[in-house]
Structures are given as C-alpha cells and as structure tokens.
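Structure tokens please, single chain.
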Amino acid sequence: MRVVALISMVLILETPAVTQTDTAAGVEAYLRGDYQRAAEILKPIAAGRGQADPTAAFFMATMYDNGLGVAQDQLRACALYVRASIPPLNGPFGAVATELVRRLSGSMGREAFEICLMTSSMGLDHRFEPVTFVLEPGHWIAWDLKGAVITYQGKEARVPVALAFNQPVFTPIRHTELQVDPTRSTRRHFIEVAMWIPKNLQTWELFWRLFEVVRSELVPIAAEQVTTASGSEPPTEIDLREFVQLRVNGDGEAEWAVTGKTPPVSHVIQSAADREAEIRRTRERQMRESKVDWDRVQDIHRSPSLLYADADGCAQMQVIVYGWSEDRAEAISVRADQRLLQLSTTPRSFDLSARSNGLDVMLHVYQRAVRRSPMCTDVGMPPNAVEQWHATSGTVTKKPAMKLRRSQAIIKESQKSEVKSQKYGPLNEAAKSASPHRARCGTTQTGRSRIGRRSAGTASPRAARPERPSRVRRQFPRRARVRVDGALATSHARTPRPSSAWPERTTARRPPADRGRAASHR
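Here you go.
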C-alpha cells in the first residue's frame, strides 16, 4: 500500500487538472475506495490503442500492482507504469511512474522487463498466448512475445522474432505437421503466426507468417496479408484455413496457398536439403564473382565461348532461363512463351529454323562484365555495349528439370536445352540483302546502351551508302557444353560450308564516326 500513500501525497501537492470526464470519474472512484468501479472506468482508457491517457494508465497500474479491483499482475502494472512515464504527455504522475519503472526493472529480471516494455508498446489487449508444441521426442518449441525457444537434443536455442509492432492483436499460434515425399514418410513441422494489424480506426488487416522448424532452427517461409475486417475491434474468432492452406501436392511436396486472394497464390516450400544446396550455390557464386575483373573491357565482336558457369531463371507468362560465363561477360538466354507454345510437363522439341513464335535462343556478348543480369528485371542497368546473336537453326528440347525458385516467382518446370547443330547469325535473309536493316545494338556516340528492334524488310537509313567489304569471323568451337539450371546442354558445331542454309556472322566495316555501334545479328 506504499503506492497508494504516495498517490495521496501527490494529490495533495499537485492538484492534477484531469481533462477527460471518464478519467476523473475513475480517479474519484479510486479515492473513495471503490476499486472495482474505478477499474471498470479506467481500464479501457488506459489500455486503449493510440496515445494512452497517462493519468488513467498510472492509476490502473497501481491497481494491478496491488491487486485492487483486479487480479494482481506485475507485468501489466509495469507496462502501464511505462505508458504513464513516457513524455511529453506523462501528466502529474510522470516522475513517480518513472521511479516505479526503475525499481521494477531491477526486481523483475531482464527477460520479464523486456516483455514489459514490449507489452507497453503493443498494448495490453494483444491477445497473445504463450504456447509450447511438442514436435518429436526431445524436440519442442515454446513461444512468447520475444520469439521462440527451440529445444533439440537436450540443447535450447532462443530465436528472436519481431512480434511487437503496430499494436497487433494475435490469433492463436498454430502448429501443422505434414507428411511429405512420394512415400509420405518424412515429417515436416510448420508454425503459423497470424495477427490483426490496425490499418485505420475502423479497418484491420490479417497478417500471416509461416515458419518451419528444422532441428534447432526456425526458418522463415512466407509472410502475406490475407484478409481484412471492419470494426473498432478485430474478430475474436477466425478460421485461418478459410484464407490460408498448408498442404501436400501430388508430387509429395509441401506447399502453402493463400486462397483468399484473386487469383489464389501458391508456392512450393523448399526442403531443408534444397535450402542447404541453394546456400552452397550462393557461396560458390560469390566466390566466382570475387574473381571477376569488373573493369576489364573486351571486344564485343569476339566469338562467343559457349561455356557457362551458372544459371538462373524466372517465369510468369514467359519462361526465361539464362546462363552466364565465368567472367560474367557472356550470357545465353532461352525465352519461351507458355501460352503460345502450350508448354506442359511433357518433353518437347522445337526446330529453330521454323522460327516458332514465342521461342527465342540468344547469345549476349558484353563489353564489360555484368554484375546483375537484365533478363528477369525491368530495372535500368548501367551502360554496357552488347552484341547479340540469334539461333537460326537447330533443335531445342524442353524437359522437366529441377525447380528454380526466385523471390517473386517459382518455375514449376525449368528448361533443359539440348542444342544440336546450332547455328548463330542473322535472323532472316533480309540481313544479307543489298540493303540490310540494322538493329542498333551496342553503344551510341552518347555512350548509352541501346538495343533496338528490327522489322523485317525495313531498310536502314544507311542503306543508300555503298556496301563495304565485310570480314567473316571464325565459327564457334566444334563442341561446347552449356550448363543451364544444373543440366548440360551440348552444342555441336559443324565444319562451315558455303551454303545459304548456314548464315554467317558478319561484321561490316563502318566509318570512324560510327564505330561505336555493333553490327546487327538479327
């Protein structure tokens, strides 16, 4: 009761000017000794969202601290004392509240005081309930406001998880076990944390987070906003499965899906082995990139090497798979339109000489090493001269291969190319006519990289100039192996022979003023 005596002394010395009628009524009930009535009035004011009333927070804290009108709760008392001590609206009891917070920080212990501070920030009506899930014998996970504690093979590991932000209201944490792989003999354990976040005074958004427990690690899998609700308070009960699904697909893989969106969103969840393999690939990629000479300037008219050290890809309406050389100055790309080509999981071959709409195989020879590939992004890249080669004949075979995942898309089927008798050069006979149309490709006189499109049969403004002699550059190596998404694609180059069916790559000689531009290979 020392706190009550201290309050009486403060009231005598500082007659507080209480601005809210309800708060004043609660304080009067408190001073009369009607603590139950005081709690009924002050509790919603002190625990409300937004800027708390420091006077209501202070009196409610003393009731929790001493068990007056409410069950004694030191954590709630501490959180409300913190709210009452925060300037600038800390009221006449700010100094007293600050002193009480200092004393509690020493008596509660470090972890309990950290939760006190988090509760003060989140609000008292967060509805979070600590919970423990037993996953396997000797393996379990316990959740509190600071995150998770995983016990595995007799050892504990604290995993911090940021939960205290923007005054959330939690739904019960869920544990889901899935039997995966083709024989359904492997168990995987997933934890779902869902919380309502206030968007404005009358709108709430349900924010869902998915984690996987792998031994002593908590692996973040996904985070999505799945639905909204209207009202001053969020719903007290909700069936999360109406909006989010955790399931096993026909291939025995775990996947999550947000069914409440239009269109629905679903993603396959990488296995622990896949994640470890991806980490190894990332480390190997970083090691290779550390050896790249990023300042080296090369001749863009050089013959492509057709040797590629790594690959990546993306897929939406168009599937793009690309590989790049070890020096990052050459790339190969395969672009396939899923709708036009009617791609499926069935292996299929394409004849490049037929010029199928929706399929394009290209080589990109750069002047400088490329740090970030422009294949799967619309973000502008630094100026870099490039010469492009297009495949005009040969065969590309598509086969289902290892899934390739990126941050914004998952390729349900990647491409493994097997290029036979591949020939590169101009795309059509118009390029060999007396008035070829040139696609601008390379550096202009301003130094900026420009890649233009050519319309077949359209003459270049330079076509009226007399045709200059051209020099034929040497053909590719007889055999080159292209690694794309972990699969080898082999290119067999045949001995050149004078034939119209074997278009040659040519580089026209240009006047000195135009040497900044590369020749067209379309």
